[in-house]
Design brief:
The chain is mainly alpha-helical. It contains eleven helices and three strands, in the order H-E-H-H-E-H-H-H-E-H-H-H-H-H. Strands 2-1-3 form a three-stranded mixed β-sheet. Helix 3 crosses helix 10. The longest helix has 35 residues. It starts with a helix and ends with a helix.
Amino acid sequence: MKSTRNRSSASEFLLLGLPIRPEEQGMYYAFFLATYLTTVLGNLLIILLIRLDSRLHTPMYFFLSHLAFTDISFSSVTAPKMLTNMLTHTQSISYAGCVSQVYFFLFFADLDSFLLTSMAYDRYVAICHPLHYTRIMSQTVCILLVIVSWFLSFAGALVHTLLLARLSFLRGNTLHHFFCDLSALIKLASSDTSVNELVILIVGSLVITVPFVCILVSYGRIGATILRTPSIRGICKAFSTCGSHLSVVSLYYGAIIGLYFVPSSNNTNDKDVIVAVLYTMVTPMLNPFIYSLRNRDMKGALRNMLARATSSM
């Protein structure tokens, strides 16, 4: 029985990486390294600004600081391993490392979804119920929303990972990807994956579809509120408070829909890998720019920090 178990479990997987030519490896390595460093430094800057500027100690920026931390972590799940493989020209990842990567990838992807939903709810309350905003979005409520987001993300990722760990891999150990993607691993499994696929459908609906619908409903209510009292000032105010969040939501869910919900044939692995790069690396990098360039409060906090740093020199 022990020997059967050993033969049914791959000790490592081979990641074929990105669909790029060998002579282009150096250029793409420099690009993705710059992308990853920008993601980390940009999101750390957001956390620092929110921490230092008392005017940003509001529910919206409380959620944004958690989103920035999540983006750093989400990108760090896949980028360092991909960059290491590109630099050393290796493709292997251990079984334990692969399963761990699946868990943390799902955890931070789910957490992103829940935090974006909390931010949409915050914007809904701010615009549709401004007189009751302070009472509804109290510190206790904000902390509770974050705790629930972390717990649901932990539970969802754990269920997928435990079900993945029971699968055997006899067909091979080569993944046409640059990280251990759950759907790619399930396709590679030699044992029955019907339970895994059912759980993906159910949990995916709970952590992706339901939050997305909640975001759409929130912004539908916001739009209806603006249309009831149309004014240039009101529209500009709503756009300034919601524009950044809407841009991030569009990038996040646009990539998810393109990656997981648009039907693709078995011969389009390259397309899936390219979209996954946008989802895991480019989108987290763009978030700091979106919130910095489109948000007046963030730009003001950055100017104040730079002014204090200049005056102290």
